[in-house]
Amino acid sequence: KQEVTQIPAALSVPEGENLVLNCSFTDSAIYNLQWFRQDPGKGLTSLLLIQSSQREQTSGRLNASLDKSSGRSTLYIAASQPGDSATYLCAVGPPRLRNAGNMLTFGGGTRLMVKP
Amino acid sequence: GAGVSQSPRYKVAKRGQDVALRCDPISGHVSLFWYQQALGQGPEFLTYFQNEAQLDKSGLPSDRFFAERPEGSVSTLKIQRTQQEDSAVYLCASSPFPGQGSSGANVLTFGAGSRLTVL
Fold first, then answer.
1. Could you tell me the CA-to-CA distances from A48 to A14, A87, B23, B47, B104 in Å, in that order?
2. For residue B104, what pLDDT is reported?
3. Which pLDDT value is given to residue B8?
4. For residue A89, with 0-12 CB atoms within 10 Å meaning exposed, 13-18 middle and 19 or more buried, which class applies?
5. Number of A–B residue contacts, CB under 8 Å
6. What mean pLDDT, rounded, does chain B reach?
7. What is the DSSP letter of A83?
8. Residues lower than pLDDT 50 in chain B
9. Which residue among A51, A103, A109 sits closest to B42, beta carbon to beta carbon?
10. Contact (CB<8Å) A107/B42
């Protein structure tokens, strides 16, 4: 059974700092890996999606990397801002072919607080 | 609609009551997923529909949980004889693709969730 772990569980940084969130998974046979953002009382917003054949994806100040062989992904946030405060979730999709690409296994999340 | 809509947003039930949670996906979206998120944890997969067909229900925690999508649009998650351990946020998500799209890039849109508290 796939297990996804995120470290740290919580992180507090001053505004402007660059930071890295870590995600590890036990089964390297994945279809894709996604990073989501969750604000309190709201649903999840997809930030970046990396296919299993890719090594990284970038969107603005965000960069996500994927190392399938070691079962690791990192989310790099450059020049953090108070508006980045949220919970960041990592999720992996299974490799099954039958319409299963979005049956995601999530990590527990990292709660990020960026202080002004 | 513009997004995935879930109702009710908040539900308080006494132990043993039945509850029904509704999900209105984005119009035309083929795939619909239900996830359960306990406090302080990541979401866990419950069940998946492609149009009206329930293709996977392996994540439903017990036979008290039942989901349907009879016309391939709105979905209802029903929980019978609720227990305290059922307290969680229930998230619905939809996608325009039937699981793995042609590009392999699936984009899920999540609703805000229904927070269930069982007393």
1. 24, 15, 25, 23, 14
2. 46
3. 97
4. buried
5. 82
6. 91
7. G
8. 100-104
9. A109
10. yes
The CA-CA-CA angle for residues A55, A60, A64, to 5°, reads 25
CB contact A49 to B (< 8 Å): yes
Share of chain A above pLDDT 90, in %: 75
Between strands A110-115 and B10-13, the pairing is unpaired
Following DSSP, what letter does each residue of B36-52 receive, concatenated?
Answer: EE-TTS--EEEEEEETT
Quick check: bond before A40 cis, omega within 30? no
The encoded tokens of residue A75 equal 């989310």
Cross-chain Cβ contact B104/A103 below 8 Å? no
Closest CA of chain A from B23, distance in Å: 13
Q: Does B100 touch chain A (CB under 8 A)?
A: yes
Q: What is the pLDDT of residues A40-96, one digit of tens each?
A: 888 899 999 998 899 999 999 999 999 999 999 999 999 999 999 999 999 998 776
Residue the block writes with tokens 């017990």: B62
Q: Which is more confidently placed, A20 or A52?
A: A20
- A43 vs B contacts (CB less than 8 Å): 4, 91, 93, 110-113
Cβ separation B99–A99 shorter than 8 A: yes
For B74-83, write each residue's pLDDT tens digit. Answer: 999 999 999 9
